[in-house]
Write a structure and sequence with these properties.
Radius of gyration: 28 Å
Number of strands: 0
CATH topology of one domain: MetI-like fold
Largest sheet: none
Number of helices: 12
Oligomer: single chain
Order of helices and strands: HHHHHHHHHHHH
CATH superfamily of one domain: MetI-like
Strand content: under 5%
Distance between the termini: 57 Å
CATH architecture of one domain: Orthogonal Bundle
Helix content: over 70%
Mean pLDDT: 87
Shape: flat
């Protein structure tokens, strides 16, 4: 009984023991709170321009959002109404052309840089050139494609616009895919080699499937960056007020959202200016959706 009584007394003493609480004005705690608050303030300050731009786009461009606006042809100077349908389709088509060129080439180049011959002289040169191209002015890509393709075809076209976007997308795809491939644990590859797999089998069945989320993230970031480009399209696709008509239309001038915004924002007509705001909102929403999707896939990888 005495032992049980002592345990009960000890339990009551523990329950009545005052809890330890950090003082609000204690040195390290106060410093931590101040730095945390300052960090949140800087984050809010950095997000303020983005929030203000999105609010302005929604306020000025959201009023014209409708199915008719998203599908109708752009209006002429003195016309009312109209829409941005050809510009949306043209942007999607040229980004698709750029993706079909840059994604396979970029992934194959990343495989060579990360798996086949990472330390070779060719790999070092290719890696250096890819890093240089990431800071390449976009307008120079348009000038290059104009000199090589547009002059030879004697016409602006969606094909030339897509190739100029592919030039800009390629270094992002290469570098992000290479980093994703490097993140695959070496022990997984060694286990596959130990089971008798060839290098091609290891790359195709172990390395690439494991690195797929990171590769997709890089691809989406490259697509998002190319979707908002305007300078290279001025030299390669120019503009058109009509939809792309079949495969033949790929060799003709093509509309895009960025060029429509550039053209309409400088006009002295309220209708065209409103459509420029609407096109800006649509373009920002497209880029924002791709960036959010890339972040989601990146977190799943982590």
């Amino acid at each position: 009984m005495s032992e049980q009584a002592s345990q009960a007394t000890l339990g009551r003493a523990v329950l009545t023991e005052p809890r330890l609480r950090a003082s609000v004005f204690e040195g390290r705690g106060l410093k931590s709170r101040l730095l945390t608050g300052f960090t949140w303030f800087l984050a809010a300050l950095a997000a303020l321009p983005l929030i203000s731009v999105i609010y302005m786009l929604v306020a000025k461009g959201g009023a014209r959002i409708s199915w008719e606006t998203l599908t109708a042809l752009p209006p002429a100077a003195f016309e009312f109404g109209g829409g941005i349908g050809p510009a949306i389709v043209g942007t999607l088509v040229m980004v698709l052309i750029g993706s079909l060129i840059s994604i396979p080439v970029g992934i194959l180049a990343a495989i060579y840089l990360a798996e086949v011959a990472p330390s070779s002289r060719l790999a070092q040169v290719a890696r250096f050139l890819a890093k240089v191209l990431t800071g390449f002015p976009s307008i120079l890509a348009g000038v290059f494609v104009y000199a090589v393709l547009v002059i030879s075809m004697r016409s602006y076209s969606a094909i030339a616009g897509g190739i100029s976007l592919a030039v800009l997308m390629l270094p992002t795809v290469i570098l992000t895919a290479e980093e994703a491939l490097k993140q695959v644990p070496q022990r997984m590859k060694d286990a596959a080699y130990g089971m008798g797999c060839t290098r091609a089998q290891v790359i195709g069945k172990v390395t690439l499937p494991t690195a797929t989320p990171g590769i997709i993230t890089g691809v989406l970031l490259a697509v998002a960056g190319a979707s908002g480009e305007s300078a290279p399209l001025l030299f390669t696709a120019l503009f058109s007020s009509y939809y792309i008509s079949g495969l033949e239309g790929l060799a003709e001038p093509t509309a895009s959202l960025s060029i429509l915004i550039y053209n309409f924002s400088g006009m002295p007509y309220d209708n065209q200016i409103e459509l420029a705001w609407t096109a800006s909102l649509v373009l920002v929403l497209m880029v924002l959706a791709l960036n959010i999707l890339a972040r989601v896939l990146g977190r799943r990888k982590a």
